[in-house]
Design brief:
Layout: E1 3-5, E2 10-13, H1 19-35, E3 46-51, H2 55-70, E4 77-81, H3 88-95, E5 99-103, H4 117-124, E6 129-133, E7 137-139, H5 150-155, E8 157-158, E9 161-166, H6 172-176, E10 184-186, E11 190-194, H7 199-210, H8 212-219, H9 223-232, E12 245-250, E13 257-265, E14 271-275, E15 293-297, E16 303-313, E17 316-326, E18 328-332, H10 333-337, H11 340-353, H12 355-369, H13 383-388
Parallel strand pairs: 2-9, 3-4, 3-6, 4-5
Antiparallel strand pairs: 1-2, 6-11, 7-14, 8-11, 9-10, 12-13, 12-15, 13-14, 15-18, 16-17
C-alpha cells in the first residue's frame, strides 16, 4: 500500500475497492453496530491508558510515565501489552511507578496486537473516563485538568488534529456514509473518552481495527478509525481547534525546521503534548538534545503548506521530518520548558543502567529469535549472560 502526502495537507492512498466490497464493508459495520450491547456500567474513575510492547515502546513508556509523575500527575495508569511482550521483572518495575500492567490475552482470545490494542485497551480498561497516550507521547504538564474541559463534559470526547485531510477519493467516505470532506484527520497519540457516553463508537472503532486488512489500507493504521467510527454513527466529537505544530531543530541555514515531534495543544491553545513519533527515546543518545524550536500556526490562522523533508542523523538514512508554512510562529523550546528534555535524557540514562532493562532486552530478543521461548525456558536461564557482561 502506498500513501502519498501533498504539500497542501492531502493524504492519498492507492487502495481501491469495487462497489460490491464497499457495500459489504458498509453492511458489515452497520450490522455490528446494531449488535453492540448497552454500556456495561462496570467501570470507575478516571485514568491514563497506554500500550507498550517491544524495546522502543517500553523504553518510551518508561520515560513518558516518569516524566508524567514529575509533572505531579497522580492519575492511575494502566499499561497494556500482549502475550510475553513484558517479562515479570519489567512489570514489577512499572508497578513501582504506580502502573498496573494488563495482558490483553487475559481479556480475549482474539489476536489483538499492534494498533488494534489501542481501542481494545480503552474499552477494557477499568476506567470509565480514559486519557489514552501513545507510549512516545510526553506531557509538559499534568493533563488531569482535561477531564474538566467543558466541551469534553458535553460530548464525552476530545480528539486532536493531524496535519492531513483525507482525500475525497478515499473509499472510507462511501463506506461510512460521511461527506465531511474538508474535516481534518485525527492524530491518535492522545485521546480523551468517556466510555459511558461513547460506548457504541469505541466498540465500532475496535471493529474497524480488527478488520485491518481493509481499514488500515484506507486510514493509515488506527488513527482515523476513531474519527470515522464517530462519523459513521453520526456522533459529534470535539476536535481541538489549534492545529498541530512541529518541534525539532533547525537546518544549518535556518530556513527549515526538522520537525521530529508533533506538538498538540489544549482547548485554550496551550502546548500540552509532545508526541516524539519520528525520533523515539530508544534510539536517542544520552546527550542528544533535539527539542530546540517549535513551529506552529498562529491561533486561528489558515494553513498554507507542509514541507516533508529528510535528514541524516548519524546512520539513520531517510528519516522523515515535517515543517509548516503559513501564518506561523517560531518558539524557543528551552525558553518555554527549560530543562524538560534534559530530564527525559536523565531518566533514559538511568533506565539503561538498570539490570532489569538489560534482562528485558535479552528477554525480548529471545522472544523474537528463539523458538519456544519463553515457554520452555526460564528468564533466569540467561541471567549469567548479563552478569558476565
Amino acid at each position: 500500500m502506498i500513501f502519498t502526502f501533498t504539500d497542501k495537507f492531502i493524504r492519498k492512498t492507492n487502495y481501491t475497492v469495487n462497489a460490491h466490497m464497499i457495500a459489504l464493508l458498509r453492511k458489515g459495520w452497520q450490522e455490528y453496530a446494531a449488535s453492540i450491547p448497552p454500556y456495561a456500567g462496570n467501570f470507575e474513575g478516571k485514568g491514563i491508558v497506554t500500550c507498550a510492547g517491544g524495546v522502543n515502546h517500553v523504553t518510551c513508556a518508561w520515560v513518558n510515565i516518569n516524566m508524567l509523575r514529575q509533572t505531579g500527575c497522580m492519575l492511575p495508569i494502566e499499561l497494556w501489552y500482549t502475550g510475553h511482550e513484558l517479562n515479570a521483572e519489567t512489570i514489577r518495575a512499572f508497578e513501582q511507578l504506580g502502573v498496573q500492567c494488563k495482558n490483553s490475552l487475559d481479556y480475549t482470545g482474539l489476536q489483538v496486537y499492534g494498533f488494534s490494542l489501542k481501542p481494545f485497551a480503552i474499552l477494557n480498561s477499568s476506567f470509565k473516563e480514559v486519557l489514552f497516550l501513545d507510549a512516545d507521547n510526553n506531557c509538559v504538564a499534568d493533563p488531569a485538568y482535561l477531564f474538566d474541559d467543558v466541551l469534553y463534559k458535553t460530548y464525552g470526547t476530545i480528539f486532536w488534529p493531524d496535519y492531513w485531510i483525507t482525500d475525497r477519493a478515499n473509499p472510507i467516505w462511501e463506506i461510512t456514509g460521511s461527506s465531511d470532506y474538508h474535516s481534518i484527520e485525527q492524530e491518535s497519540g492522545q485521546i480523551l473518552i468517556n466510555k459511558e457516553k461513547c460506548w457504541k463508537e469505541i466498540n465500532l472503532c475496535l471493529h474497524f481495527n480488527l478488520r485491518r486488512e481493509h481499514y488500515y489500507e484506507m486510514l493509515l493504521g488506527d488513527k482515523d478509525t476513531f474519527r470515522f467510527a464517530w462519523k459513521a454513527l453520526g456522533t459529534h466529537y470535539n476536535m481541538i481547534a489549534m492545529h498541530a505544530g512541529a518541534c525539532g531543530f533547525e537546518a544549518e541555514d535556518k530556513d527549515l525546521l526538522y520537525g521530529l515531534t508533533m506538538v498538540q495543544h489544549d482547548s485554550a491553545d496551550n502546548i500540552l503534548f509532545l508526541h516524539r513519533n519520528a525520533w523515539k527515546w530508544d534510539i536517542t543518545a544520552e546527550d542528544e538534545l533535539v527539542w530546540d524550536k517549535i513551529r506552529r500556526f498562529k491561533s486561528g490562522a489558515a494553513r498554507e503548506s507542509c514541507i516533508i523533508s529528510h535528514c541524516n542523523m548519524g546512520e539513520s538514512k531517510g528519516r522523515t521530518f515535517y515543517d509548516l508554512v503559513g501564518e506561523v510562529e517560531l518558539l524557543d523550546f528551552r525558553e518555554l520548558f527549560g530543562d524538560y528534555e534534559q530530564k527525559g535524557l536523565e531518566i533514559l540514562k538511568e533506565l539503561r543502567n538498570f539490570k532489569f532493562y538489560a534482562r528485558f532486552l535479552l528477554h525480548y530478543y529471545n522472544l523474537k529469535a528463539r523458538p519456544g521461548y519463553p515457554r520452555g525456558l526460564k528468564e533466569s536461564t540467561f541471567d549469567h549472560v548479563i552478569q558476565r557482561a
